[in-house]
Amino acid sequence: MDAVSIRVPYKHLKQSEVELAGLGADRNGIGQDSRVSNGGSDVPLSSPPSPPRQTHPSSANISSLKTLILSCMVAAGVQFGWALQLSLLTPYIQTLGIEHAFSSFIWLCGPITGFVVQPCVGIWSDRCHSKYGRRRPFIFVGVIMICVAVTIIGFSADIGYLLGDTKESCRDFKGTRTGAAIVFVIGFWILDLANNTVQGPARALLADLSGPQQCNSANAIFCSWMAVGNILGFSAGSTRNWHRWFPFLTTKSCCEACGNLKGAFLVAVVFLLFCTFVTLHFAIEVPLIVKPAQNLSDSAPLLNGAPHSHLGPSNATNGKPTDHKSESGTLIGKANSENTLNHEMKVKEETVEVFSNGVGSVLVNILTSMRHLPPAMHSVLLVMALTWLSWFPFFLFDTDWMGREVYRGDPKGEASKVEAYHEGVREGAFGLLLNSVVLGVSSFLIEPMCQRMGARVLWAISNFIVFICMASTAVISLLSITGHAPIKTASLVLFAVLGFPLAITYSVPFSVTAELTADTGGGQGLATGVLNLAIVVPQMIVSLGAGPWDALFGGGNVPAFVIASISAFASGVLAIRKLPQLSSSFKPSGYHGFG
What we know:
By secondary structure, the protein is an all-alpha fold. About 65% of the residues lie in helices and about 5% in strands. The strands form two sheets. It has a three-stranded mixed sheet with strand order 1-2-3. A two-stranded antiparallel ribbon has the order 4-5. This is Sucrose transport protein SUC3.
């Protein structure tokens, strides 16, 4: 069959449209040599000019279950460190001489890095062109930073001793060790920065490896590894024998509690490196390839001497003789001018891309997108902010509350008071272990409960449970003066019960956001970034105000917990009155971890 020439301005066609035209041509019996003509010059459909584009790994590839399981293992290593950070670091900083009123300030780094680092790392990893893949380089760098930070924290007392802190034994000295405290804070901030560097790419890596039909299974695997890391981490934090198993951990500046912290963190480093090695080995990524632009003008086929005998005279000049020399000169000049224009456009595109990848551009994009949210999302953001205003005091002071209020200890008091405090901290870590177990079991119950009563009602119920639990901390603190064992048992039960509303907090708001913003066109990633604002802003408020607020009432943690209970009650009422009634369909977005 004779070839057919189609006259269209192909320069304005997208790549997919040109390929679709070629597909239609094949169905109509047009051969592969068919041409697209634009005013007298023809280019094969198989190689149309196109702008630079990125070739992403195909999401249609389905990984084996073994690959998905082993590729998620880094989540367990990261969460192991998070668990130790949550259970041990607030009490430990007070042993270095930092007052309880200022101990919450060090947690300010978590929301700041979570707000700034995670969105930026997510975009940078999307566009990474490393031969090792898009996600694995960020995971590797972040893990190395975690190992360095954990080592700095564990040895902060020894480093402070070398920097000129007191030479007295840690058993006798009760003052402030300034050098150790500064080193600790530096390590703490690096740790939060590194954790946020790893978490985003780790989840994105799993999404890259799983096919469309594996999304729910892959997310369940990831959450399971995080649960494993939590359980192991809180178990390590509740162990009091690290300094006995490894006697070299204790020094003149680092006593038993410090030695236990050091041992737990060194185990965390080994476990994290092992998990990272497994993930990097089994998670095989396809590098992101940028195809260079084909700077071809309309006249390129003529200049290349491509055959055009099939066109016939009518296609080129309507049967009139042409001056080939003058036409060649005109075409060469046109090609040179178009190549110059293409180069200028490429430079502008690279400049725009660099700007759009910048930290400021990413944050501005998230902030300005709030104007285009559905009206119901503003209620979601308000309820989410109050929810986290009720949760974060518990995350900051849970083990410290056990040591101070429940076990009546004091990290700066007499030897018996110090021992009681550390025993309470260890019991608090065990309570968080129970919390993680309940959280993991509850995660499987959220979907049927949402289908039965709706996400709005379930979210409200979880906030009312938090209200009751936070109010109960004041009652337990008052009754703990008696020192009865049932009071200590009740505190552990409270820790375990909070696992149920915590599972809802980690899942339902994200699913509500996904449903409300499904048709907005802004992208789920951007919507989640906006929701992240409602998480980090309350964390900043609590980090700055919780310690001084407690100090106004003579110290302790109950004043912050009372504010948390009020916020939980308000968020429950607003969830019932302000949130829209959503569909009963629910797909849990998974356990999002701390920070």
